[in-house]
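Q: I'm teaching a short session on how sequence maps to structure, and I want students to see two examples side by side rather than one. Could you give me a first protein with its sequence written out and its structure tokens following it? Keep the formatting plain so it prints cleanly on a handout.
A: Of course. Example one:
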Amino acid sequence: MSEHGKEIIQRGLWFEEYEEGARYLHRPGRTVTETDDVVFTTLTMNTQPLHLDAHWSASQPGFDGKRLVNSMWTISTVVGLSVAQLTLGTIVANLGFKEVSFPKPMFHGDTLYAETVCLSKRLSKSRPGQGIVELEHIGRNQHGDIVCKAVRTTLVQCDPAQVKEQQ
């Protein structure tokens, strides 16, 4: 207790707090800038001209001559937008990603909104006090179009107070 009353530390969800089938909406969204895309693309050594070369991209069919936002920025940001609400300080590890898709492109100036559906959860058989949670992350642009989907498996801490009671 502080002199001002109860102290509350922001955190993600304990294993027990996840609800199968629940859809968690992560707000605010994130508007991607040209700088975001170019910095991310060059930091990751991705030399794809569709991200870096405006002149070259202008001559390519399919996207009205616009450069595409790096899809790895998109998936990274979708997961990042979920952290404060779901896994901040409660995740043990990412166990893997599967079913990753990018149905529509992102462009500079688009705003990315993220949501996550809890697909399943189970207690770990080999790690007492931890559970495995399968999450489907979905990214949508400002028009509501799905621009990214990925299923992620995570290892999450159980609520320490409940673990202590079970011992």
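Q: Perfect. Now a second example for contrast.
A: Example two:
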Amino acid sequence: MAGGSFVDTSGAHHYEGKVTAFVLITCFVAAMGGLLFGYDLGITGGVTSMDSFLIKFFPSVYKEMKNESESKNQYCKFDNQVLTLFTSSLYLAALLASFFASATTRMFGRKPSMFFGGLFFLIGALLNGLAINIEMLIIGRILLGFGVGFCNQSVPVYLSEMAPANIRGALNIGFQMMITTGILIANLINYGTSKHANGWRYSLGIGAVPAVILCIGSICLGETPNSLIERGQHEKAKEMLQKIRGTKNIEEEYQDLVDASETAKMVEHPWKNITQPKYRPQLTFCIFIPAFQQLTGINVIMFYAPVLFKILGFGNDASLMSAVITGGVNVVATFVSVFTVDRFGRRVLFLEGGVQMLICQVIVGILIALKFGLNGVGSFAKGEADLLLFFICAYVAAFAWSWGPLGWLVPSELCALEVRAAGQAINVATNMFFTFVIAQVFLTMLCHLKFGLFFFFAGFVVIMTIFVAMLLPETKNVPIEEMDRVLKGHWFWTKIVPNEIAIGASSQKSVA
């Protein structure tokens, strides 16, 4: 058949269809929502290391940073709660917004949720670029957070629902690819604007550009067949399914979507429903995967790379360039995931990434301990700095092809339609909560735990790698309407989930 069948070794359906240019373009435009998130992740650390920004908003931090006394504890240079609030306030707002985004995504579709995300981000970026006081900065950050919350809620769901099962992983990772691209672009812009007197304004304000692109793109996108069926627009759903699959023969897949939608409509309270025993696996993964994703410590690098490199003795230009290097590694390594996730599966990438991150974090912790000790006095020679940067890049690469993209992909594809919006909202909220906490306390933790901070995160990498090895079934090539079958067949979840779990009409038909 055209384009080949959707190969699946779990006994799931083999729907007819091919990978069409339309679905590739659609998913690319939708993944632009990740560019907003990535741009903000990358821009903050560079801005907070710029002298002009610190002089205007945080003069006490600037004074402390310029204290070049040899006895100065390098670990505590940037320990300021208001400064970290500038970074972390966005993620607290994103946490709150994700719950409103869940209702918007379910009631009005995935497109409006993406549009609102872009609009909030646009206004927030403009406010930050024009800010004249800390209050204006924080309000802008909160609006940026609303944008991130709406985009992170809707985009992974949109991508999972539009993509054919056999390339769903690669297309969904487009979201993470845009995140990493946004981080790299932000690092390059910071490097370019750092010499300008008001460079921080340009860095923050340019975030309006991808926001405009997403707003326009979301208007032009087609809605997912799942969402159209969910809202009773069956003819439009058929037309869209034919368009994205490139074939008129979509009746079997369409009927499975209708059956899943009918099951979902029987659920009056999706938030209450996801807490039922039969959804224990989905609820578990929607909480623990995003939590562990942040507890890898990756955002220590993503948020504060220039600040961290300054603390470790890199010069101003060297710290910003090092952030560009790690951002470039992040993008390249994400491509590895795009080309391997649907070939080797999710579990292999999760496990390999965990082992590599663990090794790199331990080595980085040891290098910093040997140079700075407990008193935080010292600096790296060029060769030592290069070695440190190498292992930080290896750590970033491991995250970029494993826990980075899979942290968004796996929770979004595991949830059945009746709990998908609620599950994704929990996923985003958990992610944003831990992102907020780590952004807010990292510089204080660095001041108190010193080099031990890297061993702290390494401990969580051990725990989460064991978690995946023991509890996560392989989901590659499985249509998202049949994920219950995979979960029910897992050695652990079959003991936890009641036997009467509804595995969907499509699964029952295929068994028959």
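Q: What should students look for in example two?
A: Point them to this: The longest helix spans residues 417-449. Also worth mentioning: The chain has one domain: 21-511.
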